[in-house]
Write a structure and sequence with these properties.
- With about 260 residues, the chain is of the alpha/beta class.
- It folds into two domains: about 90 residues, no CATH class; about 120 residues, no CATH class.
- Helix content is about 45%, strand content about 5%.
- It contains 13 helices and five strands.
- Strands 3-1-2-4-5 form a five-stranded mixed β-sheet, with helices on both faces.
- Helix 6 runs parallel beside helix 12.
- The mean pLDDT is about 90.
């Protein structure tokens, strides 16, 4: 999270947020501070946030099909919070059924691997969004009947007021669309597919001087994982899984495969 007296920026995983933070944090006289990482407005004090309503509230978004491939490829490098959550043997001592966890964590590790292997990705995606949902802690916060992808779950939790409490009764696409319409507080979205131009538009909205803005044009982004184009990893079945589970984002942000 990045905060100053004019801006609140919230980072959605795997959507270019490190690049955005680097730029925001380097603007002269912007006087911002970074607090935590990938945290919601409920994980910091009201004193740190200040007057939320007076700030321009900014967040990232990314094509869901691309996002899942990026998340999996990052885990295949044995990196990231999700990879740790699903495969870390040290967690076995902290849960009720350690033998079950060790068996499941071994299966998860097998679904990560060579980032050139679409079959491993498809196995991982179906485990993540269909068969092993009860092992993902974010899904424990939503209705058990909900057909909701991990990206959309994180999106709702990060960019909406009170999703963990008021969103518990939502489980249809219509429910989530209506909830997001009423509770989403983001004023400005930065799309991963057009990130550099969106950042320039954001700086113009914030009335950052052109001489400063020009310093960030065509700035270099760092890719956190190496992989092929996301389309190479899907078949018709897995493409449809994402279409169903992340319907809200696909519809709202006009994404397509």
């Amino acid at each position: 999270m990045f905060i100053n007296d004019r801006l609140l920026y919230l980072e959605l995983h795997k959507s270019g947020c490190s690049h955005v933070l680097k730029i925001l944090n380097s603007i002269p006289d912007f006087n911002g501070k970074i607090i935590g990482k990938h945290n919601t407005i409920y994980e910091v004090s009201k004193g740190q946030i200040g007057n939320l309503q007076s700030k321009l509230k900014v967040g990232n978004i990314r094509n869901p099909w691309d996002w899942y491939v990026s998340l999996w490829a990052f885990g295949s490098m044995k990196k990231g919070g999700l990879y740790e959550q699903l495969t870390n043997k040290r967690l076995a001592n902290k849960i009720k059924n350690p033998k079950l966890f060790l068996r499941d964590s071994s299966e998860w590790r097998l679904s990560y691997g060579n980032a050139d292997n679409p079959d491993l990705f498809k196995l991982w995606l179906k485990k993540l969004l269909q068969t092993n949902r009860n092992e993902i802690h974010e899904f424990k916060r939503v209705h058990k009947k909900a057909k909701l992808g991990l990206l959309t779950t994180r999106y709702l939790n990060l960019y909406n007021y009170d999703f963990q409490t008021k969103g518990k009764d939502c489980y249809t696409n219509e429910d989530f669309i209506a909830f997001d319409k009423d509770h989403n507080f983001i004023d400005f979205f930065l799309h991963n597919e057009s990130l550099d131009s969106d950042i320039i538009s954001l700086l113009h909205t914030l009335k950052i001087p052109e001489i400063v803005t020009n310093n960030f044009r065509d700035s270099t982004r760092t890719n956190s994982s190496k992989r092929n184009a996301y389309q190479d990893y899907y078949d018709d079945e897995t493409k449809q899984i994402v279409q169903i589970m992340d319907h809200l984002i696909i519809q709202k942000h006009n994404y397509s495969f």
